[in-house]
Amino acid sequence: MKNKFISVLLVFAAVTASVLSLTGCGDDNYPVDVANFVIENEPENIVILDAPTADIVSYTGYDKKMVGKSDEVDQEWLEVVPSFGSAQNPDIEKIKSSETDIVFAGDSLSDESKAELESNNIKVITMAQAQTAKQLETSYITLGKILGGKVTGSNTAAEAYSDLLDEMDMMKSYVTSSKTSDVLDTVCYLFVENGKLRMMSSGTYGDLLLSYTGAVNAAVNIEDNLVDVNTLKIANPNFIFYADDETYSKIKSDPVLGALTAVKTKKMLMVSEEEMNRQGQTAINTLKKMIYFMYPGLAQRENASTPGASASETTQPQSIAGTSPVSGTTAPLNTVPSDSATSVASEYKITITPNLSLKIEDENNNVKVMQQRLYDLGYITDKGNITGYFGEISQSAVKEFQKKNSIKETGAADNATLVAMFDVNAVKAK
Question: Could you please report the per-residue DSSP string of 255-315?
């Protein structure tokens, strides 16, 4: 009789656990403790006023929760998100009417705006700017926990962070494998702060980003970021990246800096401070931009390996006579322009920009168009799966497409995958 009673208890416990699982009770994801906040439930609607935070949130895939942003959140792939005013004084009424759970703000948010948001039970969270790889990982995990929970969110963010480093490592390996000499190039990044010329020094996130170009930062062992012209004279960097026109003018007007080889040979490229400080997709785009400028032959080689690409289609960095070199017109590694002669993108009414990337849990019209193309190529077999939602079926189809088209099998449709997918010579499933 005792054994029967124990069996009944075990069955009851199993049924109870099953019910708890189905109803969401006993969920390990929430509540989440973050600094002096407790997030009781998964946020449904968020507003991001801080562009660097938006970059990370977007890279983790939680940008689908965004109902608004500030004018300063200017990433191209987030342009469809409504603007709620400035980062300093956003439109509080719009934020309230959107049933916002959390506002991610920067240091510029006014005290008055913050107080009014919090008085309406809207949590205001400010993320610190990461300076090291470990701090960056912590930023990803923290945002993941807030937006997806202690288990699900942490795992999603950890995977995104790993993908970020993998992609940057892959680009660095392209550089390393393409070089015929073991001699490392030297680079530096210069900017103006409080009227003084400064350089990206050791221990900063910008220094970390520069390291992925495969070159050595001329200020690698320097902690004081105030420019020492003699140090740069000795280092004589092969390439100089600079923040803006004011920085360019200060470099050119200094007798020592103006005589550096990189200045004389015009191996200088404008890379804004925003590009150097954002830590998601912008970081990937910035790294590609710098690598392309440094090694244009690598861009040609990588484009030549992409289906339908030709050397003439590669976009090279340009300079305008009488001005500083212009910034930011280069295409990403492994891509060709989506309007190339062999692309059918226009027939599907999709514009494949350098920043367009589709991944699991995305839901938009671009996903639906991608699914239609995969259906036409035979990778999706049921037309009912053309829904606009990027789920496991789409992920498997993308992976299979990548496998047959000699692209790294990630399951995410990055620019290289989309360009190849909408090429007339794309390899079909059968």
Answer: TTGGGSHHHHTT-EEE--HHHHH--SHHHHHHHHHHHHHH-HHHHHHHHHTSTT--GGGPP
- Token look-up 């005792």 returns 2
pLDDT surpassing 70 at residue 389? yes
What is the sign, positive or negative, of the torsion defined by CA atoms of 84, 88, 93, 98? positive
Residue 303: CB atoms within 10 A of its CB come to 24
3-state DSSP assignment of residue 34: strand
Question: pLDDT category, 341, cuts 50, 70, 90?
Answer: low
* Per-residue pLDDT at 5: 32
Crossing angle for the helix pair 133-148 and 51-60, to the nearest 10 degrees: 70
Instruction: Report how far residue 319's alpha carbon sits from residue 15's, in angstroms, rounded to the nearest whole number.
Output: 70
3 state SS of 103: strand
More confident residue, 47 or 327: 47
Position 339 scores a pLDDT of 44
| Integer Cα distance of 326 and 269 in angstroms | 7
